[in-house]
């Protein structure tokens, strides 16, 4: 048994750690040669116990180092919960609480999870071949753009929302769908006095608003490189609003576009947006989802995990949790095969069925995202009804 993990994001690294912990041979590759410049933080709640199962004890116990604020206790974070405000008044509309929450800076987390894992970088998967009549370790080959390849028993495509492994499995059916909204995700620093004020006033985990102008905005802490120098603290903004015939994507400067939409927002958020440095870079972005379609796993030789298996919007904070759930299910299945308790085809079929069931969250998260842009009906949002609990019983 040799597993080829394609993609060293949250899902791929969680799988690699789990395989290593269970002494299952693997190789993990990623197309990147340097970390992507996009960064954000994720809220891990219900998947934390699964993460603990997958990671070596020391890595799990030092996860707080990946938090935007390393001193924030997971139980306190759970009590503070996910705060949704009325964007006009700043008053609380909803708080989703969980017994324990960890906010994790995604770049720091990927670095942390790579500890002791030999990720082969600079290997973009371009093709897969199924090998006939080979022994267990030679059943499938992954080919990379640098001309090299890896051969093993099974490929797990953990290569994100625009997965190439998914494209190999499903062709045009693998295409993502763009949601009809504008989207911004950018990070910035603030003058020290405003950074301190924001840090004091904002909910320490998630602090977002839904505005009567049918707009979503959230302001979050990303990092505190120097705890004593508030001018170094890094925050980020996520903002979405609906695009329709009357409301096209503007062609001007992105920060000006955002500022022009802040009329009527409550003071804290308005002040922050006013004080974002004028030269901040806001790259073009798009919310995309993929509603999972069943795939043929070629007799247990190719499967998918994480965003590759179900890519969703972030408004209910489920993508990362589900990536870890996939990793745990995948590692448990392969471990059972290695122990001789399961046949590999039955194990991977059962895993695939589970991933397909979990993908119900793609539509729930889409509804949550669009509900933020429909203020009148916002109280019907899945965020009100389900908070950040998983959509299904596990
Ligand atoms: C703004 C934002 C906020 C979010 N908030 C939350 C939250 O609060 N809670 C939550 O649970 N989730 C959240 N998520 C979702 C979460 O971040 C993702 O679901 C999770 O990171 C997906 O991990 P992944 O490993 O599946 O994919 P990725 O992290 O995208 O990793 C895929 C990896 O595959 C590599 N790759 C791609 N193509 C190839 C190829 N052809 N060959 C080799 N390598 C390749 C990429 O370089 C990348 O390293 C949020 C997402 C965003 C964008």
From TrEMBL:
List the Pfam families: FAD_binding_3
| Cofactor(s) the protein requires to work | FAD
Domain FAD-binding residue range list: 135-360
SUPFAM superfamilies registered for this protein in UniProt: FAD/NAD(P)-binding domain
Q: Per its UniProt record, what Gene3D superfamilies does this chain match? A: FAD/NAD(P)-binding domain
InterPro entries, per the entry = FAD-bd, FAD/NAD-bd_sf
GO molecular function terms attached to this record:
FAD binding; monooxygenase activity
Q: In the UniProt record, does the keyword Oxidoreductase occur? A: yes
* Keyword Chloroplast applies: no
State the superkingdom. Eukaryota
Keywords on record: FAD, Flavoprotein, Monooxygenase, Oxidoreductase
The protein's matches in PANTHER family, at most eight in alphabetical order, are given as: FAD-BINDING DOMAIN-CONTAINING PROTEIN (PTHR47178:SF2), MONOOXYGENASE, FAD-BINDING (PTHR47178)
Q: What is this protein called?
A: FAD-binding domain-containing protein
Q: Which organism is it from?
A: Talaromyces rugulosus (Penicillium rugulosum)
